[in-house]
Structure prediction request, 250 residues.
Amino acid sequence: MRNLEILLTYAAAISTVRAIADSVLEDTAFEAEEYMRSLIKDHLRHHMIQSESNLNNFSCIILREYTGRVAPVGRDLNASVTEGIVKGPITFKAVKCRSTREHPAGHVSFSCLIETEPIEVEYSATVSGYDFLGRVSKVPLKAKSDFVFHVRICQDASAQQNVEEIISMMLNKPKFERNTFKALDLQGKQQSLLQDCLTYNIQKGLDFSIKRYLTDAFQSALDAMKRALPTPTPKFAEGTGNRGDGFEKE
Prediction:
């Protein structure tokens, strides 16, 4: 449970930073979030005795993977959005984001707001003309947080090897583990997807004290985001003949 609390803190802080990123120019927001990613990894690497693979597993499920510009959930005008209530007190959105050179069929983001411990989560979306169904069973979460699952869909859905490679890359794993994900079928049939994906990425070696270091990293990243915000143009104070900054208007 301590490890789950760490992940929840992780996700909540990232949601806060992303909220600020929405009001920043796209390039600036991208650079700031990349800075946040590197900063958090530095803290984890410095304060935890973990292998590089475990470090990647910890961060990849929560941090957004940038292989191209991915619009915020629900904000892409060209996106196909589905939202509603599913089993358990959970609201979700599924968004088809723009295509990238690496993934011509596009990215799909699943955002689940979990308020209590659910027994089962179901979601559906339409991906590049395919009806896409998925299910996550027994997600062991008891706190309110906003998680975003990013699933990369390959252009040739019939090529199982491509699907495996994409999932492997998503997990930063050298080899695809069949026990973790069941085979994907994008032909409209019901399927299981991301079985216990959160618990899979929680490492037993995490120490609860890391929460303090993560909080420091989030605050530093948040400060960096604020510094990246455009500075408002000073306005002349009406009726005073100056700009309100101590310098008289010429």
Residues 26-47 form the longest helix (22 residues). Residues 1-61+204-231 form one domain. The CA atoms of residues 43 and 213 lie 7 Å apart.
